[in-house]
Amino acid sequence: MESPYLRPRRLRRTPALRELVAETTLRAGQLVLPVFVREGAEAPVPIGSMPGVVQHTRDSLRAAAVEAAELGLGGIMLFGVPTAKDAVGSGAVDPEGVLNRAIADVAAEVGDALPVMADLCLDEFTDHGHCGVLDAAGRVDNDATLEVYAEMARAQAAAGAAVLGPSGMMDGQVAVVRDALDGVGATDVAVMAYSAKYASAFYGPFREAVDSSLVGDRRTYQQDARNALEGVREAQLDVAEGADLVMVKPALAYLDVVRRVRDAVDVPVAAYNISGEYAMVEAAAANGWIDREAAILETLVSIRRAGADVVLTYWAAEAARMLR
Ligand code: PBG
């Protein structure tokens, strides 16, 4: 007897059948763990708005990197929290600065087993908290900032970073970083461009994580949430400037942009599952309102399904353990 119905439920009947037809993969090697290291810290410092995430000491950072390598993660992205800041972010280019020292520490510990990635931006190092240097009128000066980024790129490469992540949204930053690297023979150091980075309220917890000094906002350089085409254009410009990977950030409120960028470029696409996205799930789970582990995996799968090849997430190590 012929059924009058088409029955998609047939392929959902057992876990094995569901596994057979699963369209999206989630592997440890696709996940990058962002970490914070605090200059002078003698014990890890918990970040109140990001339960489970800390500002590392040099030692606890090394241990986290070893664990990340053992778990087979795709990378570790380092952010520095310096004790002293100034108008031009000097700590960012100082080989003894907290971030450059952390890059060297981690690179010495994990070698090529785990790609060591470094945030290339001035906001943690400036006393005004902006991602660049300011002009006489107090505006973020694009081209003067690029000169500092070039120096920062050379310092991070010298420290041993494998991948640099320019995240300041200055025009031309990828080309300048690429030139700076090639100029010192660091042709193997890759650039993961924060291409479509939106001015987002969801960065709130990160600002606590890095002790941000920012007053005001970043709307003259980060993108407007209303624009998706502009995100595609930014990614295309970065590919033309030599980006090895491009990134969309945040991830969850911008999954459409992830998809559009994925369809528009031919380099790997990363998406950053940011601090506010992490905090929302953690807060709801702490209240008993959602199943934490299921929500984490569903979140990461959704970003992969949207088209991200690589996902930066504070849950990277935990998710890798869950996926084992
Ligand atoms: C800026 C930077 C930001 C994040 C990473 N690098 C955002 C910002 O303050 O504008 C956010 C990451 C997160 O929220 O998890 N260099």
UniProtKB/TrEMBL annotation:
GO biological process, one term: protoporphyrinogen IX biosynthetic process
A GO term from the CC aspect: cytosol
Signal sequence extent: none
GO molecular function: porphobilinogen synthase activity; zinc ion binding
Binding site for Mg(2+): E234
Pathway: Porphyrin-containing compound metabolism; protoporphyrin-IX biosynthesis; coproporphyrinogen-III from 5-aminolevulinate: step 1/4
Entry binding sites for 5-aminolevulinate 2: S275, Y314
Keyword set, alphabetical order: Heme biosynthesis, Lyase, Magnesium, Metal-binding, Porphyrin biosynthesis
Enzyme nomenclature, EC number: 4.2.1.24
Catalysed reaction, written as an equation: 2 5-aminolevulinate = porphobilinogen + 2 H2O + H(+)
Residue sites binding 5-aminolevulinate 1 per the record: R207, R218
Top EC category: lyase
Active-site residues (renumbered): K197, K249
Pfam family, any one: ALAD
InterPro entries noted in UniProt: ALAD (IPR001731), ALAD_AS (IPR030656), Aldolase_TIM (IPR013785)
Function, as annotated: Catalyzes an early step in the biosynthesis of tetrapyrroles. Binds two molecules of 5-aminolevulinate per subunit, each at a distinct site, and catalyzes their condensation to form porphobilinogen.
Family membership: Belongs to the ALAD family.
NCBIfam families for the chain: PRK09283.1
Subunit-level organization: Homooctamer.
Name this protein carries in UniProt: Delta-aminolevulinic acid dehydratase
Origin organism lineage: Bacteria, Bacillati, Actinomycetota, Actinomycetes, Propionibacteriales
